[in-house]
Amino acid sequence: MQRFVRPKFNPAELNNKNLEQQARLVFDWWCDDDDREAYLKSLGTGIGWIASRAHVQDDPAPPRSQPVPQGHAKVALIVDPAEVDKALVDTQAYSNIPYAELGGGGFMLAIDPAPAGPGVTDWHGEQRKFASTWLGAFNSTQLEKVAELAVEQAAVVSLAGSQFDLAEYAQQAALRYFGLLFGFGTADHPLLEAAAARGYKALQYQIVGRHFVSDPTIVPQAQAAMGMLAARTSSLIDEYATLARAPRRPTRPGVTRPSDTWPTGVQPWSELGLSSLGDPLLRTAPAAGGAVFSGQDLCTIVAGLLVGMVGNVQTAVCLMVQDLMKKEPQQQTLGDVRKLLAKHPPVPFLPRRTLKIVGNVPQDTDCILALRPRQDHEGCPWGQVPKGDAAHACLGQAFVEPLLVAIVNHVLSLRGLDQVRDGVTGEVLKPERLWGFGCTRYPLRYRRDKVRTRQPLIVTMPIKAPIAENAARLRAVIRSAAPRIDSVLLGSSMVQVAWFEFLAGDTLLTLHTVYDGDFDSYILHFAESAGELFDQIFECIEGAPPMPVADYPFEFVETVRRFNRPPAANYFFSRV
């Protein structure tokens, strides 16, 4: 059973449709994994043409004397592996300029290699050289140590429940990893999160989304988030340099602190067991790249690395785990991460623009390169080709692989790991992808009670009118029933602590407990052992379940579930 009855893919449906109708149909195929694959295969080694919603020319608002051309921009979809490889290496025929709208002319992805010549600086080559050396400051053992710490930090919130979103967990682990290695503080996490999420969405919009949907807010929102990150990055680089020259004055004469040379809010590596790594990347940035790049250039590079890394990690982890979950539990091992990535490229499409006529593709035509799964080489699936390096080959392969391994291995080690099924159809829920590109959600579940037995219950119930009168009645009920409540709690081995609290000017009654075990079993126990007490309480509550509670235990469970609130940011600490 399926939620939607989709017709079988049939390329003949494109016949007798106008350009916009054809584009809508292709987009419908594109957003379905099976139909997208069938559509790409149907093109064979030919070129697919998409009637794009993107602007026909770069400047959407030229002078009034030059009316902007309207209509559909023709976009070439290149699927032939040989042609894709050619587009990745032939910088005389293809340009990366479609990326420029996201990060400007200094954005590494948008810069084309410059031809050698006197007085000519290859800024793309300079950025690649700097970034490769800079990210290579840490060896694999050091990166593995940081990856394990990042995975643990992300699990505190992202794996707090028995059901979790793998895409969100991978994103948080990648953000922690990036923040630790670059030397950002805890308070900088929201900035990193916003810049990574909005920047990656804008990246996907420039590659695929803008050809099918119209949302002119995506790129400006990404630019604003990346701008705020650039401002903070600049401030931190300056503060690291200032503190290296003039450390903070010790609180007591002669007594130094680990934080004396660390910016305010940044936890010193000595407190995290990372002293052996040396210095964070923001501290070394001026020495590593200052001879060639300005402070603004360095900030732009940091933002570009963040955007390119976090979203790709998020998607790669989801696709790898989905593949492994198809196997028997005893066979769910990571193995060769590069081969698995090549089988499921986290970047399935790349943009290019023709600089001259290429076959049947006119000059100045935007192209989408479809990176097909391949096992013919050991290269990185982020744009490597079998023979020779691509002009924009992956920079972060060695930098990211320890994190991918750490996340996937941690997820596979979760007790009772299983996929989640649709509550209506029973189908296994697959990763959700934006425009057939990045994975935005992948629900999974595990036996959380086997990892941490204690859980919070925060049942917040609205008091019904007349509020003052019913609040007084509730106080009287709780006070008079206190011995009975104590007896019930002592008779349950599941409850650790419990109390009631009035909130929001006595308009809400909240029951707090910390308990062991399964939610449903825990609540059913109280329906059976203290149903009459809850009858008295629910008489004063808006949205109460059917009563008496003892006769409607399952409705009682669902009512408590409805009123239950998660802890702030889903954070809950317990030693067991």
TrEMBL record:
TM helices/strands, residue ranges: none
Organism superkingdom: Bacteria
InterPro entries the UniProt entry points to: Cyt_P450_sf (IPR036396)
Region named Disordered: 247-266
One Gene Ontology MF term: monooxygenase activity
Protein name per Swiss-Prot or TrEMBL: Uncharacterized protein
